[in-house]
Design a protein that fits this description.
The complex is a heterodimer. Chain A is of the alpha/beta class. In chain A, strands 6-7-8-3-9-10 form a 6-stranded mixed sheet, with helices on both faces. In chain A, helix 3 runs parallel beside helix 6, helix 5 packs antiparallel against helix 6 and helix 10 runs antiparallel to helix 11. The longest helix of chain A has 18 residues. The radius of gyration of chain A is 18 Å and the shape is globular. Chain B is built from 19 helices and 2 strands. Chain B has a two-stranded antiparallel sheet with strand order 1-2. Chain B starts with a helix and ends in a 5-residue tail after the last helix. Classes of the chains: A alpha/beta, B mainly alpha.
């Protein structure tokens, strides 16, 4: 790893659908070895930012670097977890087969998995608590279990950077806690970097080290306790009237955007 | 194909037709599965229609009905259709369904115009080209079947070799793209495979109905399996069975093959969609009904037990009033309890049998444990993916966690 380079860095990123810019001139970086959250109101471009960084959406302008390399060249060091709605859960595939996909880039798309790959897959399933569901078709899983499957696939990729798009939307509290804990372990024990699009401002304050506050443009990007100030939140959520009142009234308490 | 033809207990011509239908069924079943799973089955329809002008042009250029050159024409035209669909989707703001519709109708119109032109020329060679509309398996020659079999072999082999990239790209495009799979190439390969299936089936099934041979086997196979590899095998088998049956029926009734194959396949689809275990409409309705009845019975047992506890045995109408439930489902539930020997009747009055009392207590206990889970579940500290099943809490949580929940419910400490 190049010392000191950010896990993910965006320079002057602009993305638009038609004439409407969804992201405008966004500069942001997420340090390696930290848990970073991308936070902002609905329609602020959070998911688009990740998708553009992963090369899934074409950017009008800007550069993306991953661990100091141009994104295109460093994609092998990233595990991307799409939103759950992105796939067809009725697809005829089992939990283990989905997780095995995480090994394909390393093994080669046309090769059989080796014994060590199967061990990695088994270990990933174990870490997300899905071992006993390995043979089940993915449609017969709850929302939380589905998210665990996606997480296990990302683990099996053994990537330095994990990028997750709204992993906890519609997920039960037990799963969210377990997966957040797992992500913290990845950071603390293995020094991996995590970048998440997240919506729960409470956990952002308590769990994450680094925050990008986004609303089409970057409002603030830095250590969580500095970025999550009343003033910044007010600027990011301006226009979301109900949210604004809540921020003003009690920025430290439970906050529902 | 020679030795195979000798093996079949049919006349030579019937054997050739049967083998042709078999090959086409396997190929269409296996290759169509990916189109259905990617929700692109109508692309298959458009490509089949696109193949028609290719057949006509190939005939115009070569001046002969050589099956190989006609197939090549069909294949090239199909590929152009595929590229046209993708091109329209990517460059214009036209949505996929409209793009598919445009390509289908334009190419098909072109095909019909060309076929009409050829027919008007009065070339003696041209007789039979109209078969490519509705299909005619009856006229297949051994060399046609050889060409079909060679193409099918290559295509099925390609699927076996490329199963992982194909599956990954079909299941999760975004993951596939970020994991370094060249999506465009994979999609092109998928379209090319679909075109190959169409080339194989065009003569026997016809451009208009070819899509059915791509969809039917996949739909039937999906009903019976939850995994891709078995689904591909099953779809191939279903395609073969439908193809052979349809072709034989059509030959004996002297009607075009395409429609008969489609009708045969529809019968298979109906059976599979209605009756398949777990996914079938009837199976699911049955399971839902059984579950509703089970819940009704449990609720009724609990109510009866409560009333017996509080006072004299109630009559049916007293029970009905007390638990504020509509009469008919309650009568039905009571009759069910009666049959399984859970209640005893004392004239008009109802009592629980010993067995019924045990069942009522079990139901009360299950209810209490479920409410205990809702209240204390979070404090059990279960971090793996276990999900509680209200019907079988002990089984779904495991003995250890269930035991702790019982102690919590009883007010003790974990």
């Amino acid at each position: 790893m190049t010392q000191g380079s950010a896990a993910l860095e965006l320079r002057r990123l602009t993305v638009s659908y038609g004439a409407q810019p969804v992201l405008w001139d966004v500069d942001a970086h997420f340090p390696a070895g930290t848990m970073s959250a991308i936070v902002g109101p609905n329609g602020s471009g959070k998911s688009t930012l990740l998708r553009a960084a992963m090369g899934l959406v074409r950017a009008d302008a800007g550069q993306v670097t991953i661990l100091g390399h141009p994104a295109r060249e460093a994609m092998r060091r990233v595990a991307y977890v799409p939103q759950r709605e992105a796939v067809d859960w009725d697809f005829p595939i089992t939990v283990r087969e989905v997780v095995e996909m995480g090994r394909y880039p390393d093994v080669g798309w046309f090769r059989r998995l080796r014994r060590e790959d199967r061990d990695i897959v088994a270990d990933a399933l174990e870490r997300v608590g899905m071992t006993s569901f390995a043979g089940r078709q993915i449609g017969r899983l709850s929302g939380g279990q589905r998210q665990r499957v996606f997480m296990a696939r990302a683990l099996a990729q053994q990537a330095d950077v994990m990028v997750l798009d709204e992993p906890f939307a519609g997920v039960d509290a037990r799963t969210e806690a377990a997966l957040l804990d797992l992500l913290c372990q990845l950071r603390d024990r293995e020094g991996r970097s995590v970048v998440i699009v997240h919506h729960d401002l409470q956990t952002v304050r308590s769990v994450f080290d680094w925050v990008l506050l986004l609303n089409v443009r970057a409002i603030a990007c830095g250590p969580a306790d500095e970025v999550m100030s009343d003033d910044n939140l007010r600027r990011a959520y301006a226009g979301a009237e109900t949210g604004l009142a809540a921020v003003g009234a009690d920025a430290g308490g439970v906050w529902v955007p | 194909m020679g030795p195979l033809i000798d093996l079949l207990p049919l006349s030579y011509t019937d054997s050739v037709v049967a083998l042709g239908a078999l090959v086409l069924g396997i190929a269409a079943g296996v290759l169509g599965t990916f189109a259905v799973l990617a929700r692109r089955s109508l692309v298959g329809d458009a490509l089949a229609h696109s193949a028609l002008p290719g057949v006509a042009l190939a005939f115009l250029i070569t001046g002969a009905k050589d099956p190989a050159s006609l197939l090549v024409g069909a294949g090239i035209a199909g590929l152009i259709g595929a590229v046209a669909i993708v091109g329209i989707e990517r460059t214009s703001r036209i949505r996929p369904d409209a793009a598919i519709g445009v390509v289908l109708s334009v190419f098909f119109s072109l095909g019909v115009v060309l076929l009409t032109y050829i027919a008007a020329q009065g070339n003696a060679q041209q007789a039979g080209l109209e078969r490519y509309l509705f299909g005619q398996a009856a006229g297949l020659l051994e060399r046609d079947v050889n060409v079909m079999a060679a193409l099918a072999g290559v295509a099925v082999l390609a699927v076996v070799v490329g199963l992982r990239p194909l599956r990954t790209a079909t299941f999760d495009r975004e993951f596939a793209a970020t994991a370094g799979l060249p999506l465009r190439q994979v999609e092109l390969a998928t379209s090319a495979l679909l075109v190959v299936a169409i080339m194989i089936g065009l003569r026997a099934v016809g451009a208009i109905l070819m899509v059915a041979m791509l969809i039917i086997p996949a739909v039937v196979a999906r009903q019976f399996t939850d995994r891709l590899a078995p689904m591909l095998v099953l779809a191939g088998a279903v395609g073969a069975a439908v193809g052979v049956t349809g072709a034989q029926l059509a030959a004996s009734a002297q009607v075009p093959t395409g429609p008969v194959i489609v009708l045969t396949g529809t019968a298979a689809v109906l059976v599979a969609v209605l009756l398949a275990p777990r996914r079938g409409v009837l199976w699911r309705a049955g399971a839902r009904r059984a579950e509703r009845r089970r819940q009704e019975a449990a609720a009724l047992l609990i109510d009866l037990e409560t009333m017996l506890h509080a006072g004299p045995p109630p009559t049916e109408s007293e029970l009905c009033l007390a638990c504020a439930r509509p009469v008919r489902p309650m009568r039905r539930a009571l009759a069910g309890l009666d049959r399984s020997g859970l209640i005893e009747r004392d004239g008009e009055r109802l009592r629980l049998s010993a067995q019924g009392a045990a069942a009522a207590h079990a139901a009360i206990e299950a209810r209490a444990m479920w409410s205990a889970w809702l209240e204390h579940g979070a404090s059990l500290g279960i971090t793996d993916a276990r999900e509680p099943d209200p019907r079988d809490l002990r089984g779904s949580l495991g003995d250890e966690a269930f035991g702790r929940l019982q102690r919590l419910a009883a007010g003790g400490r974990v």
